[in-house]
Specification:
Layout lengths: L23 H14 L4 H11 L5 H7 L10 H6 L6 E8 L10 E10 L4 E6 L5 E3 L12 E3 L3 H6 L19 H14 L5 E6 H10 L3 E5 L3 E3 L14 E3 L2 E5 L1 H9 L6 H4 L1 H19 L2 H4 L2 H9 L2 E3 L3 H11 L8 E5 L6 E3 L11 E3 L5 H7 L6 H6 L2 E5 L6 H10 L5 E2 L13 E4 L8 H8 L4 E3 L17 E4 L2 H7 L9
Length: about 500
């Protein structure tokens, strides 16, 4: 079995810091700003050749400015022609030269673009998810199980792994790391990843600094006493930001994007971090598109040149930028996270030597696949804000909390779950909505993998411990618990 050499990351803490990388929309904005400000400069040609892996041709520039039709099947083509199938891009954030394990990815995020509805879904994958990394063909006899953050490193840095000569050809070379990370994350999520973007901490800081800083507004203060320094420790005294609008430099923007141990609950939650990152993305885009921002193309190229890599083409990046201008900043971006508070659990799928790892409740990942497939639901679903409550009388009680957490990102009014002693064999959805949200009950049936929908009446009431909520109450049955843990393959069920 191939073994990963023991190496420590400077960002190795009990709670890993995530979401360090700017989203792919920001990269598209920055690259398009550079192209638009000095399209034919030799420096631009060299920059694009380096970060995208191929020098742009005259035909490519014609596509960027909208003169020529993009190649059929490309992202630019799919966006232009409103492909009904979402575009899935993997965004990777890694420590880079400031880290003693430079290619381990602290951030793995799937960004889904819906060409039809102009919405974006961002799905964070924890770096500690323990998976098989299939970089070698079955005939080689080489297998490896590691944390998912090693996939990019295994494909990028050949000097630290055995059997590199036997690696599959698509996982070697310039884009080998990105393609291996795509393959690995794709098997976890059930998605085909179209392309990848990889950027390190230094690039993020330098981009913001090259733009002269950005303006960010916080709803509440942010005080984080456990923010990491660059020496395997923590910033003395922590980091502290007041509520309100403030101008921040690159290091401060990185702190705001990464902080996850704030003492304020609103800032330490997944939603709070996602909201800050969205504000930072919008601020970078706004600054990059100002007249002053266009003048800073040389600085942006310097910031990204050695610390940003992608297999997206220039016309794809330009198309993403133009398409993203129509994305509603408030309702058009959906935020999700796969965590041990929903479909993962701590430990149980690897040896003690693996350290802190996260494992799927369903080892086949079918539950994860089904949930990820629902991350771009029909617009009426997210617009409904319907009241929803989960009921579960089985064991373990935490299953109800996990399902409740899965429902929160859709914008529902999600109540705390109920834990009655009574159990059901099959799942039922009690519909108290009086048809306020047509089609929502059908979507819930699909979300829960099939369930009976019942409209309680005096003749057929719901259990007395369920309070009508003018929305929906989902009473999970033993059938759903079997799927949650994939009991068909586990003796413990």
């Amino acid at each position: 079995m191939a073994r990963l050499k023991a190496r420590r990351s400077r960002y190795r803490f009990t709670h890993r810091l995530a979401s360090a990388a700017p989203a792919v929309l920001v990269i598209a904005v920055l690259v398009t700003t550079i192209v638009g400000s000095s399209l034919m400069a030799a420096r631009v040609i060299g920059f694009l050749n380096h970060v995208t892996g191929g020098a742009p041709s005259v035909a490519t520039f014609a596509q960027v400015v909208g003169v020529a039709e993009p190649p059929a099947g490309s992202i630019a083509y799919r966006l232009k022609h409103k492909d009904p199938n979402p575009i899935n891009i993997l965004v990777l954030g890694y420590g880079g030269a400031e880290n003693d394990a430079p290619y381990l990815t602290d951030t793995l995020m799937v960004v889904r673009l819906d060409p039809v509805t102009h919405r974006v879904a961002m799905i964070s994958i924890p770096r500690d998810t323990y998976v098989a990394i299939d970089a070698w063909p079955a005939s080689s006899g080489t297998t490896m199980k590691q944390k998912i953050n090693a996939a990019y490193e295994i494909g990028t840095d050949d000097s630290h792994f055995v059997d590199n000569s036997l690696k599959r050809p698509e996982f070697r070379g310039r884009d080998g790391g990105g393609h291996l990370a795509e393959d690995t994350v794709g098997r976890v999520t059930g998605l085909h990843l179209d392309n990848y973007v990889a950027v390190d901490f230094k690039a993020f800081r330098d981009v913001v600094s090259a733009l002269g800083g950005i303006d960010v507004c916080l709803d509440t203060p942010l005080d984080d006493n456990s923010y990491p320094n660059y020496r395997d420790g923590y910033v003395a005294g922590g980091i502290h930001y007041p509520a309100g609008c403030q101008h921040v430099n690159g290091e401060q923007a990185l702190q705001l994007a990464r902080s996850r141990e704030a003492i304020q609950p609103q800032q330490s939650s997944d939603f709070g971090r996602a909201r800050r990152q969205q504000q930072i993305i919008a601020a970078i885009r706004k600054q990059a598109l100002t007249a002053d921002g266009f003048s800073k193309a040389p600085g942006l190229m310097t910031a990204l040149d050695s610390n940003f890599r992608t297999d997206l083409t220039v016309d794809d990046l330009s198309a993403i930028y133009n398409w993203s201008k129509k994305v509603d900043e408030s309702a058009g971006i959906l935020h999700y996270a796969l965590t041990n508070e929903n479909l993962l659990t701590v430990g149980g799928c690897g040896p003690p030597s693996a350290g802190y790892i996260l494992c799927p409740n369903d080892p086949t990942y079918q539950m994860v696949h089904g949930w990820v497939a629902q991350t771009l639901p029909p617009i009426p679903v997210t617009d409904s804000h319907a009241p929803i409550q989960v009921v579960w009388g089985g064991y373990p009680p935490s299953l109800a909390d996990g399902v409740t957490n899965l429902l929160k990102p859709y914008g529902f009014q999600v109540a705390d779950p109920l834990h009655p002693r009574a159990t059901r064999s099959t799942t039922v959805i009690y519909d108290y909505s009086q048809n306020q949200w047509p089609g929502l009950s059908d979507w819930l049936v699909q979300f829960f993998g099939g369930a009976d929908v019942v409209q309680p009446t005096a003749a057929t009431p719901a259990p007395s411990y369920i309070t009508p909520n003018q929305g929906f109450v989902v009473y999970l049955g033993h059938d759903y618990g079997m799927r949650w843990y994939n009991c068909a393959s586990q003796r413990t069920c």
